[in-house]
Design brief:
The protein is α/β, with parallel strands linked by helices. The chain is built from ten helices and ten strands. It has helices spanning 28-40, 56-65, 85-99, 117-129, 143-153, 176-182, 202-211, 215-224, 238-247, 254-263; strands at residues 3-5, 12-14, 18-19, 45-47, 73-78, 106-109, 136-139, 158-164, 186-190, 229-231. A hairpin with a 6-residue loop joins β1 (3-5) and β2 (12-14). α1 runs parallel beside α9, α7 runs antiparallel to α10 and α8 crosses α9 (238-247). The radius of gyration is 18 Å and the shape is globular.
Length: 275
């Protein structure tokens, strides 16, 4: 599995991982098996959050990575409502307990909230100093908020910005993605496969057929072709995991990229989602 630096000076992390949003709705055994299989396939970036199932998904992840924690790049997120100085620390400690681990590889603010960002970042720095997190970042931040976070944290400190990004939702390409790329901040695409319109896209179907690939694989290859982008598709399907893993080997040509950009125009900027 191809790897690239996760933030400026950060560790090398696989370009594809596994997301876990709404995984509490899946049969637990299937969810655990999917996470373990993802790790076996080299998709060792496992993303979760305290919000997911109100801690239940972190417990599922904890069960899945038991005995293989050293192979996993583990990420969780603090809710904005908990993101005060003390609240962030307490939330992290709860997440660590749910996950059955002593540390997170990265810890993110799930979306901008009402607590001062200075407090959240101070908490991240405290947790980092104590060895409870190895890096920190944000999620669903626009450029203005990223500039504020960078001014507080300092250069090279913010590992990533996790955002909604897929063929059908490309608005981060307007400003957020290039801004992060220029500063060595990883961009993590959540919900990177949004399949509603895939059967209706002639361009996507033709490219997939020519490549002997699936639309899902082409959609993922489109995202991770950019050197700063990581993707964390959520699935509890072993078949989809195998399909996702194979997407990394696809290198789209310039003509193919332009065809997809035309078929899925990025549209006007309309802000960031909060999932």
């Amino acid at each position: 599995m191809e790897q690239r630096p996760f933030g400026a000076g950060g560790p090398r992390v696989p370009v594809l991982g596994i997301g876990t949003w709404m995984m509490e709705r899946d049969p637990r055994a299937d969810a655990v098996a999917a996470i373990r299989r993802a790790v076996e396939l080299g998709m060792t970036h496992v993303d979760t959050a305290e919000m997911y199932g109100t801690g239940r998904v972190e417990e599922i992840v904890g069960e899945a990575i038991r005995g293989i924690r050293d192979q996993v790049f583990l990420v969780s997120k603090v809710l904005p409502s908990n993101a005060s100085l003390q609240g962030t620390v307490q939330a992290c400690e709860r997440s660590l307990k749910h996950l059955g681990t002593d540390f997170l590889d990265s810890y993110l603010l799930h979306w901008p909230g009402s607590h001062p960002l200075q407090e959240t970042i101070r908490a991240f720095e405290k947790l980092q100093k104590e060895g409870k997190i190895r890096s920190y970042g944000v999620s669903n931040f626009d450029v203005g908020r990223m500039e504020k976070a960078l001014a507080i944290a300092g250069p090279g400190k913010i590992a990533c910005n996790q955002v909604l990004y897929n063929l059908e939702e490309r608005t981060v390409e307007h400003a957020v993605l290039p801004w992060c790329e220029e500063r060595g901040i990883a961009v993590v695409a959540y919900s990177p496969v949004c399949a509603q319109n895939f059967p209706e896209s002639k361009a996507l179907g033709e490219i997939a057929a020519a490549r002997r690939a699936t639309p899902r694989q082409i959609a993922l290859a489109f995202l991770v072709r950019r050197a700063s982008v990581f993707a964390i598709p959520k699935t509890s399907s072993l078949a989809h995991l195998e399909e996702n893993a194979a997407a990394v080997s696809i290198r789209l040509s310039g003509d193919e990229v332009r065809a997809l950009e035309s078929a899925f125009p990025r549209g006007p900027w309309k802000g960031l989602a909060t999932t």
